[in-house]
Each structure stands twice: as C-alpha cells, then as structure tokens.
Amino acid sequence: PPARPIVGWILTVPTYYKTVAFPSSTWDEAPTAILRDLWWFSQYYTSEVGFRQGLVQGEKAVIHPILEWLLRSTDDLKKRAYLARFLVKVEIPVEMLGDPEIGTAYEQYEQLIDEFKTTHKELAALQARGMSAQELRTDIDAMENEKQIVNKKIERASRKLEVVENKESYLEAARGLRLERERQKELASQRANEVDLLQELQQTSARLTQQLSELRAASKGTTPEGLVRSLEEEVKMNEYIATEKLPKEIEAKRKEVEILSRVANAPPPSQETLDHLRRQIERVSQEVSELAQRGLAAKEGAEDNLAPYRQQAQIMARRKEEMADEFAQVKARLDAMHQELQAREGSNTSERPLSEKEYKEYLSKLKVRSTLYKAKKAQISALVAEAGVLARTIDVLNQYQEAIPSVDTFEVLTDSDLDTIPKDEMMQRINIINNQITAHKASMTPKLQELRACREKYNEVLEEYTDRKRTYDSKAATLEASIAKLEQEVKEMMKEEEANQSQTAIYEAKTDIIKTILSRAEEEAKNTGDKPSFKTLLEAKISESEKLNGLLRQEQQEVRVETERKTLQRSLWINLEALLKCKEQCIESEKQNAGILKRAKGTETLVLQ
C-alpha cells in the first residue's frame, strides 16, 4: 500500500536517515522497520496484535493517527530520535556474552553510552547557561540605559542647583526631611505591628473569656453526685467493653484467623475433597435441625418457668451489645471531631469556632451589609444610566461640531490681500466684527446666568438627594437589623410558648391522674366495707418500701464496713507476702555465700565455713 512508504519517509526525517524507498518486494519488511522506529519514540508504541496487523495491511485507521502524531511533534521527535541512535542498546544473545572478548566489548559499549549521557547533560546545561547569559546581557544593557538616564537627571538637577543660593542648607534640610520621613515610616510600621499584636491579644482574651463563660454555663447545673454517677456509668460501659465485648470479638477474629491460616496452609483441595466436605456439611446441618426440633418438642411438652427470664436476659444482652456498639461509634466520632478541631486550631491559631451568640451577630451584620450592598448597587446603576446619558450627549455635541463649518470654509486673507485693503475699510471691518462679538456676548450673558442658576440649583438638589439617600440607607440598615432581632425574639418566644404548652399538657395530665385518684378515694370513703381502701393499700406499700429501703441501707452500710475490713486484711496479707519473699531472698543469698544458717526459737545463727 502507498501509505506505508509515506510513514517510512516521515520516520526517516527525525532520525536523520537517508530516505528509504519501499518497493513492492520489501513491503513485508517495512512494518518491522516502522515498529522499530515507533519503539524508539516510545510514546506512540503499542504491542497490541490488532495494531500490528493494521500496520501490515496499511489500514487508514492505523496509519492516519501515526501520520498526524508524527507531523504534529516533529521537533520533539528529532531530539528523541537523535538520542535513540546512541542510547538504544544493541541486542546480543546471552550465550554470546559468555565470550570474554564480546563481554569486554559490550562493557566498553555500555561505558561509552554512560559517557554520552553525561556529555549530553553537560551540553544541555551549557545551552541553558548560554540562554541565561544572553538574558543577563540584556538586563545589563537595560541597566546601563537606566544609569545614563539617571546621570542625565542628576546633571540637570545639579545645573539647576548651581544658580540657587544657600543650596547646602537646602540640601541639609532635604536630607533631614528624608531621614524624618524614613523614621516616620518606621514608627508607622512599628505602630501597625503593635496594633496587630494588640488585636491578636484582644482576640485571644475574648476567646478565653468565652470559653470560661461556656465552661461556667456548662458546669452550672452539675453536682458532684451527677459527676460521680456519669463517671460510674462510663466505667461500667468501659468495663463491659473490656471484659465481655472485646474478648468475644478477639476470640471470633482468632478463630477466623485460624480457619483462614488452616485453609491457606492446606494444599489446594481436589474436586473429590470438595464433594466430601459438601456432603459432610449437609449431614451436620440435618443433625442440627433434628436436634433443634427435638429440643422444641421437649420444651413444648414441659412447662419452662424460666423461659420469660431467659428471653428477657437475651433481650437485655442484645440491648447491651447494641448500646456498646453505639457508644463505640459515638466515641470514635467524638474523637475524630476533637482531632479535627485541634488540627484546625493548630493550622490557624487566630481563628476559632464561632459561638451561637457570635453567629447571630454575624448574621445581623451580614443582613445590614447586604442592604448596603443593594443600596450601593442601585447607586452604581444610576451612575451607569447617567454615564449613558452623558455619552449620548457627547455624541450629539460631536455631531453638532461636525455640522459647524470649519475655518477653511471662510475667506482667508493673505498678507498681499491685507496690503491692498485700505485702512478705513479694515477699521470698518474690525468695528463690525467687534460689534458682532459684543452682540453675541450680550445674547449669551442671560443664558450663562440661567445656566449658572441651573447648576447651583442642580448642586443643591443633588446634595439634598445625597443626604436623604444616606439617611434612608442608614435607617433601612437599622430597620433591617431591628427586624432581624425582632424575628429572632419572635422565634425564641414561639419556642418558649411551645415549651409552655407542652408543660401545660403535662400538668393537665398529672391533674387528671390526681383527680382520678381523688375520685377513687372518695368512692372508697363512701363505700367502706371489709375490703381495705386504696389509701390503706398505698400506705401499706409505702411502709413496706420504707422498711425495704431501711434494710437495704443497713445492708449497704454493712457491705461498706465489710469491704473496708477485707481491703485492710488484703493489704496486710500482701505486706506479709512481701516480707516472706524478702526473707526467702535473704536466705537464698546467704546460702550462696557458703554459710550454714541455724535457726532456734527466737534466734538465727549463721556459721561460716
């Protein structure tokens, strides 16, 4: 096909080869050469079989993208082809490298490639340095031109100063002024730094004050008993997680790891082994189902009095596990939020999270600024409209100016014409022109006065409009802020009303309950008989509860005393155990010193040998 010679010719351009003709006898060898060159360029090379077949057959879908890519990046490919001529290594079979001469020559060949890499890098660095030198030379020329300009300015200024008296005093005064201005700038920058530092300290103080107030508000309703109760609940939850939940999970993970390790270490099962395991699983499943049915039948035949308690215990255990999972998730989320907060505070110490009050103030200020923005936008729109009117006026005036005849249309008198005109006629013409100018001035005077009055009136109206507009904007901003504040108050009052309504509903329900109890007590008072009244039953239950409470309190006191006693006894036993261990160690050390220890009643004697 004719497309392959074209590709070959284009490939020879960046590789600096001679143009290669592909006659029909070598068309089968052309794809190999083209693939080799594409592999040199490495960015378009692909090893797909379809690509090679398309290249061999000369398909347009393969040839045309190659042509486009080659023609678009010819300069870059020239450099890549130049490097490929020296960096692509000659492929030598491994068995031939065993020859000492060939191996030595190949090592020298690799060393030459490394030297070429180093030389090429140095050449690229020198070329880049040459470009930088050219840039420096250009900068130096520009600086020389600027130096000449500055020297000319200095010479001009010195020439001006030569005619000035007391120039030394003026120069001294200018020098002092410059020093004072520099000192003033330094003081201004120092003052700005001090102001910034003061603002940072104020922000830090405000943040710490806010945190202190929040901590005080948070700890306002807390009591030591509540804190102890919350700590006890947290300790119980952590104890449950550490003693029950985590061991179960660890045991399950350990069993899973054992199963996986057993499966991983075992040889790959055959199909017979898999069939045997499948049959065994089915048999065990049938046995489990039969045992479960027998157990259900046995439970149905006999009355299980502990079934409700067992079911309740299972429900409580399930709830405890769910609460533990939820507690772990909430704790993880809280830790993540604390870490994020610390990261934000560490990244930017000047910023801090806004409180609710500050957020409300920010919203009110934002509303005020949005109102001011709308007002300024309206002013800009009015100015844009006025600019359009003025632009149209300028266009009309330009048209009028073009319509006015130019000076060239009038009669132009030369010096020779002026010499031919008599003086009387010239004086007459001058008088006529002066009279015309005076008449035009007289006719323009009332119009100018009227224009001046209109301008004054316009300035007064504009000033009044500006004042009223400013007043309107300030009042609108104030009203917006007050409306936002009132809306917030209305929302708070509505929330308070809803809370009061819910509290009222609770009180009404309690009142209905009390009324029901009271009516029941009145009916029992009317129908007194052998049955004890509801009041008597309640009093009996209250007395029983009080007795039980007293017994429990007494038992708690006994348990506390017993616990203290046993704790003291335990500490004594621990001390005794430590003392005995110490004595045992002393005896062992004495034995090691080759002595004989004799014990008698109340005495110990060590006999050295």
TrEMBL record:
Signal peptide extent: none
Residue span, IFT81 calponin homology domain: 48-91
Entry coiled-coil feature ranges: 106-167, 191-218, 448-503
Protein's GO biological process: cilium assembly; intraciliary transport
CC terms in the record's Gene Ontology section: ciliary basal body; intraciliary transport particle B
Gene Ontology molecular function: any one: tubulin binding
Domain of life of the source: Eukaryota
Gene3D superfamilies: Intraflagellar transport protein 81, N-terminal domain (1.10.418.70)
Localization per Swiss-Prot or TrEMBL: Cell projection, Cilium
Keywords for this protein: Cell projection, Cilium, Cilium biogenesis/degradation, Coiled coil, Flagellum
Family: Belongs to the IFT81 family.
PANTHER family in the cross-refs: INTRAFLAGELLAR TRANSPORT PROTEIN 81 HOMOLOG
Name the UniProt record assigns to this protein: Intraflagellar transport protein 81
Organism in which the protein naturally occurs: Lygus hesperus
Lineage of source species: Eukaryota, Metazoa, Ecdysozoa, Arthropoda, Hexapoda
